[in-house]
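Think of the structure tokens as a kind of shorthand, similar to the way a musician reads notation: each symbol stands for something richer, in this case the local conformation of the backbone. In the example below we present two proteins back to back. Begin with the first one, reading the sequence and then the tokens, and try to describe in your own words what changes along the chain.
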Amino acid sequence: MGLVVELNELEPNVYEIERTGKMRVPARAYGSESLVEGMQEPDDRALTQIQNAAALPGVEKFTLVLPDGHQGYGFPVGGVAAVDADDGVVCPAAIGYDINCGVRLLRTGLSYKDVVSEQSILADRLNQTIPTGPVAGGYVDADISDVRGILEDGLEWMHSNGHATRADLDHCEEHGRLPSDPNAVPTEALKRGVSQVGSLGAGTHFVEVQRVTDVYDDETAAAFGLGTDDVVVMIHSGSRGVGHQTCAHYIRAFEREYQSLSASLPDEQLVYAPLGDDLADEFRGAMNAAANFAWANRQAITEAVREVFDVLFGATGLEVVYDVCHNIAKEERHAVNGEMQTLLVHRKGATRAFPAGRPEVPEAYRAVGQPVFMPGSMGSHSYVLAGGPESLERSFGSAAHGAGRRKSRTEAASEYSAGELKKALRARGIFVRARSAEALTEEAPGAYKDIDEVVRVSDALGIGTKVARTVPLANVKG
């Protein structure tokens, strides 16, 4: 059960939990009054969890839950915590089991009138071509050697083996590769990766064909190559069994190695390893390897989408707008108390949202800021934003990763009918395909928060500025 946490409103959409007890820094929540009230519901411990995270050694400035935040394992989904890169810790719960779950957006070069009469068959073809579900196989045939190469080189391996273009890499966070240690990935995780290169998995993951309906910032939209009535494809998937098995393995290892540290925490699920310890280095090498697998996975799904569009529309030039990572801990430079400092920024269900000028932003977008994608639900619209001018100061360069859940999967499955959902969505011109009735009802639009409100807060705070809005045309659920 959630506890009522005392919040102080610092300014509109900014709430703070004062430092008390074991907290080393304050904790913050960004959101409208209604969104933050949702984080205080009896079955949501998001605010308690972000308060607990403020006790992590080396944590700087404040811990933060974003407008889409909700309870997760030990640390809220939609949470951010930055620790000193020398004296801090690495905390798997603040990263998440699905390492580098993320979103990619593709330009198709088509307009709405080109696809409107083909929506149903488009949904069918995507569903038939892209493996979905927990153990559905992968679009790219791979063996153990291939998976090792992917864990080492990410999108570089995909490019070298004919599955990616150089432009794909240039429009991906970190160019789709982090320095990694494949040998640190558990053997069982490695094996699971063999059949999952190019697969959606289950749960919230999807491939969705969308129509751009509104453009709010002409200059930035033009830089992203987006215009009204353009058709785009949004891909949401992660590191599949590789990431989950890796995270689970190291949480257990940390619990064994650092039992005394865990016992001193306000929540033992926040078990951590001090940076510089061998086990911390081993986990970070394995985490980066799983992140490389996730980028390769989204690239393989991109290849599948390109195949479908080529067959149906002769459109072979689908281009990557950008690919963002949600669950990761990365070293970055940020200002703390007026001085630049190297931090290990943990983001769980949070998008990096760097503003214009940061060198990490691809050259094509450096003048306008990093693309940020916030999916709504299969029955609502999604948004494209750009990293906002206040993001570095307010959120360590972070923004929400979507609407965020307001109902658990169990609740949603018990409240909604798959048949009624499909009928209601079809009446609105949305063609949905799912591997099962349960996969559909768990992801019912009513299970999610109001994406308009999440985006409004992000824009008002200057952490993510609105660029364009899209609506779904065809959706394939994992």
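Once you have a description of the first chain, move to the second and do the same.
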Amino acid sequence: MTKPNKPKTKDKILSVAIRMFNEAGVQGITSRHIAAEMGISHGNLDYHYHTKEDLILAIYEKMRLEASESYGTRKPHTSSFEHFHRMISELEEFQYRYRFFNLDVLEISRSFPLVNKKIQETLILRKQQSQQLFEEFLRDGFVSFPEEDVMERILHTIRMVITFWLSQLEVISPYKFQQKGEMVRLVWNTILPYLTPAGKEEYERVLDLAASQVASNS
């Protein structure tokens, strides 16, 4: 029987770093902490990731690849609203998987210029992808915007919600709507006023479908 391939040291380092950063934040963990947790020398870790920025950049590349799957992978014969709902649901789960990055994104972007450059490149790409999806909403007759810049403002609002969702949970904790799933609801709420009758019908269908899928998996 063929033995499964063991994870490479570089991959192990990323996994341990993500877990430790999630637990203590970026500033609370050094490369020496990670090496000690793994039972390897600091020199061994440094061989793979020379600086902390190298390590965080590698984590971000992993994050970007996973998020790209949510944005770009579409199941056959699904409507634009179905794809959008699955995408934002996966992005909410993504927030918790890389909790540290979303909580410390401002600090990370200020402290690590190479990471910040990659973040800005990604934001441009995500904006283009989101615009294309909203243009499909329009073609499908699911939404109608009274002014040209309304769609752009909605897209900007959704990006802020996604980027700072975990931060607002900690900062404005006395408010309601703290449970998982609320990010998805809030994103939809920014679009609901602009749904056409066909859009409202499709929205209800998508929510019913998602609920039935959750029930069948539980």
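Compare your description with these statements about the second chain. The CA atoms of residues 34 and 203 lie 45 Å apart.
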